[in-house]
Amino acid sequence: MVRKKNRYLLAEVLFESGKQAPSNLNEPEFYKEIRDALQIGFGDYGLGLVKKSLNVRYFMEDTCMLLVRIRRGAESMLSNVFLTVKSVCGVPVTIVTKHISGSIRCAQKYWIKYSRRKLGSTLRSITDPEEKTALRQKLDEINKTDFSDLFNYKTGNSFPKASNKINSGTSKTKNKGGSFFQKTSKMAASGNL
């Protein structure tokens, strides 16, 4: 039997004038908006083509990153649909695709690299020497950190926050200790990322 091949799109959700993500945004809300945008943009054909494989895996409020699974071959369609989504739950948003990968692990690795680059650019823009020194120390800590334990997850739903309503299949294996995105989200919130 041949396994189903999927693609994972890692996207950044940008809010109007740099605001933080409202607490009422979650995976089912993004799923509804993406599904509606697929219906409008590609009609019944486009919706029927990807509806079974479309799955919003994770939305992280702290960093505004969105992880969406889609069947292989439809990633460009979904990337185009992201551009047409203008609001989620009445909140104006822009969804920008950052990375397309064949596995969750590769998406996670890219997310780490992206976060490090973002912190580096923030470091260059800071003018206060004390803030710059503190951020440089945090960046050095991140560079020394071994993230290999964050990638130790079994196949299945490694993102427990995702709603069962939007998952097409359920898994009996569970990740112990939280998902990669939850751990890095906590690190970002505490200032360690």
Mean pLDDT: 77
Q: Largest beta sheet: what is the strand line-up?
A: 2-3-1-5-4
Please tell me what the overall shape is: globular
How many whole angstroms does the radius of gyration measure? Answer: 18 Å
Note poorly predicted spans: 150-175
Helix content: 40-55%
Q: How would you explain this protein's 3D organization?
A:
- The chain is an alpha+beta fold.
- The chain is 43% helix and 19% strand.
- The protein has helices spanning 27-50, 75-84, 104-125, 129-144, 180-190, and strands at residues 6-15, 55-60, 65-71, 87-88, 91-101.
- Helix 1 packs across helix 2 (75-84) and helix 3 (104-125) packs antiparallel against helix 4 (129-144).
- Residues 150-175 have low confidence and may be disordered.
How would you sum up this structure in a few lines?
This protein has 193 residues and is an alpha+beta fold.
